[in-house]
TrEMBL record:
Reactions it catalyzes: O-phospho-L-seryl-[protein] + H2O = L-seryl-[protein] + phosphate; O-phospho-L-threonyl-[protein] + H2O = L-threonyl-[protein] + phosphate
Keyword Lipid metabolism annotated: no
Main EC class the enzyme belongs to: hydrolase
Domain (PPM-type phosphatase) ranges: 105-353
Identification of the protein by name: Protein phosphatase
Cofactor(s) required, per the database record: Mg(2+); Mn(2+)
GO molecular function: metal ion binding; protein serine/threonine phosphatase activity
Alphabetically ordered keywords of this record: Hydrolase, Magnesium, Manganese, Metal-binding, Protein phosphatase
Stored SMART domains: PP2C_SIG, PP2Cc
Family: Belongs to the PP2C family.
PROSITE patterns from the UniProt entry: PPM_2 (PS51746)
Enzyme Commission numbers on file: 3.1.3.16
Amino acid sequence: MQGLFRFFETLLRFLESLLRFLESLLVPREPKMESLISKKTLSETDERIPDALRLAFGIRYRASRAPRSGQPDEIANFAAVLLPPRSQAQADGADDDVCTDDDGTAPLWDLRMEFGSCYLKDHDEDAHFVHDETGVVGVADGVGGYRDQGVDAGAFAQGLMRSAHEEAVTALPGTNVCPHTLLERAYQKAAASPTPAASTAVILSLAGRTLRWAYVGDSGFAVFRGGVLLRRSRKQQRRFSCPLNLKAAGGETTVVADAEVGEVPAKAGDVVVVSTDGLFDNVFDDELERIVRMGTAMGFSPLNMAEVIAAFAHETARCTYRDTPYSVEKRKQRGAASTGGKPDDITVVVAFIVS
């Protein structure tokens, strides 16, 4: 009888949490912004995460008690029920790069991106922008090593994104923006200023029905189709925890010509996640895939999804008892026993591709 009581008590707590979350989706939100810094605080973002999602990934909600040994975790079980299974059709669709109408012909209309972003600060050295009209998003991460030299490690990243945003704003209507060209021009402007330091960077653009990118370092992106990971950037680094970066001047310099570039045909319904290493160091690809699938099933907006992804990465970064991409790579490269994440600034921009 007591076990049944605890079951319904847990169920009620979960349903209340889910109801609060769904109600939050109906609250009027800020308009899409084109600023460099999000105004969201961690506490505001944390409230957006359902208990079910957090516990499904093994992170204990602060107000929840861990189940006793041998007892089922009811909230996590309900989360598993909510998470739609990855079907074979979804898996097959991940390789479908050809975008056609139902009759098999090439569609006549272009696509566009709907954006949402979230920035959780640690040292406040990330920067980002989005520009709806040209369908461009950029993210940069200042190299923290300059902090020890008394230099504002975020200034160059902010200058780089500010210059890229200015270039995007002045583009003629209907212009298909080339991310590599935009990154080159932004870097020339930022490097010509007296701002020191260095930064990683990634810029993506949607040109017609093609998603294009250019990135340097470990700021990157992931593209999902049908809830399955379709494309994922791979970090550029000289050695472990030392990514390539664009530098203001002097030293071991990386140039924009070293940027990784590419493109993929886009399709309505694709979800694009652009982020600094604060996400990719702390969240595995399959975990990110599951969050995108759950968010899609629960009707998240781009902003809701960006907030949940960022807050999840923030919590995993501070977990000491679970593996992360960072801890796995650290064991591989340094041979030291290690678990846990890597606290860092976390910038997440989510774009829904719609027709």
